[in-house]
Amino acid sequence: MLKVLVTEKISEAGLDVLRQDPEVQLLVKTGLSREELLAEVRDVDGMITRSGTPLDPEVLDAAKRLRAAARAGVGLDNIDLAEASRRGVVVINAPTGNTLAATEHTMAMMLSLVRKVPQAFQSLASGEWKRSRFLGRQLSGKRLLIVGLGRIGTQVAARCRAFGMEVSAYDPYVSPAKADRAGVRLMEDLKGALPLADVVTLHVPLTAETRGIIDGEAIKACRPGAFLVNCARGGLVDEAACAEALRSEHLAGAAIDVYDGEPPQPDNPLLAGDIREKVILTPHIGANTEEAQSAVAVIACSNLLASLKGKPCENAVNLPFVEQSLPEGTRAFLSLARKLGYLAAHLSREPATQLKVSLRGPLFSPAEEPVCFEIPYHFSPFTVAGLKGYLEYSHGPEVNYMSAPMLAEDKGIRIEESRTGPGTWRNQVELELLSPGTREGISVSGTITEEGRQRVVNIGGYWIEFIPEGTVLLFSNHDRPGVIGKVGTLLGRAGTNIANFALGRRNGSGLAVGALQIDDDVPMPVLEELKKDVDLLWAVKVRFTEDL
Length: 548
Description:
- With 548 residues, this protein is of the alpha/beta class.
- It has 18 helices and 23 strands.
- It has a seven-stranded parallel sheet with strand order 8-7-6-9-10-11-12. The protein has a seven-stranded mixed sheet with strand order 14-15-13-16-17-18-19, with helices on one face.
- The radius of gyration is 25 Å and the shape is globular.
């Protein structure tokens, strides 16, 4: 018997999936205290949550039998993904069920903002009849900037175009071809795009890269009198800077559904009384429609059940079925390919339009010709792993092996896979990223040693060998005396210890590529100082986390 605990209210349609299975013992217990939660999880096989139940190390430690946990929604902010992975707990989400709900809520917020609908209602309800006070704006003819042209951003674009808006988008990971298909002008940089927009709407995940993407400087760059809409994730917008811009009338209005801390505290800057006429605030209800809640509940419950029964399931974020199906001797290459994709993303300066994966050696089934796939799931697991690693850099850990090919297709990334005989190493995985604006792509290669250790062995034609673990500082320099010494001196001055060092040179180029494995992080000011004072051509730091 499979014991499944549901800790938050979800649609009955999802619960029926579990109730109808004779192998499932269903427990629905909402509103649990911390102590009650720790007691209830001790003997459950699966859990269904939303955003209000934390799956942190303490809870996961108490849940000794837990094998799968499903989030009836998109985000995973309440789940410690790395800890769940270490404990072998499959984490599942439902990223597609609420797309239309979030899209429509964005439109509702945008329309309400420019026409001051909530304020007009409050005025009328209080006995007033002040029509002139609520002079609004039309969307038709206005310029919209969409930050993040994913599933929801693309749907918002279609609806806003129908309203007669001129739509542009900033998304460094979307190809021009994808933007063209959506009827959207793709902007090269956010700072240059913001002054051109009458309305700015956000549709990006919360990652290290996107946190605070609309900070004080970005808000200052906005067109005077612009409107800001955020129905994506809290933490994207500097709430204090936003409130001040509303107060100074630099922003005409803001519609916010998500907050840096939820629920927002009474001292949240957006709740200030003097800007109340200029804001529309809703309590994170973007996905709260009957249809969306039914869809995400069914997706979450169905996939949880499949996982518990050892069957392939979609939207498994951390432990996809392809890994389980591989022979044990090849699984290390799956992890290596993912790391290579992640590494290539750090080195790339433009969004890729093509990803080439070369699988060399007897471990991989040979094929005479490269094969280009147009339909998701026709790739080898190693190709999907490399793709997942590349997309994780921009989209966070929510990208999984099942969704990565579809996400690549959505972004206009063409995937080419080839299999050949052995190269320099007996078995080797090579990834190459190609972009329209570059003559040469970004290429990285790796292998597994006889001892079973992962190695990166080539970057851009430079033979270099290092272990993709921990924090690695990569750089390119003119191949002349003194450079390495300067790098070491600056890092030492910053208190950063070098654990290992590797250097690769290419004859005739006059250049070299270095890889420093370091025990501590490199602060951005130090990285910028390295680039400037040591005259490096480029320098990036890559942190290979434990879950990679």
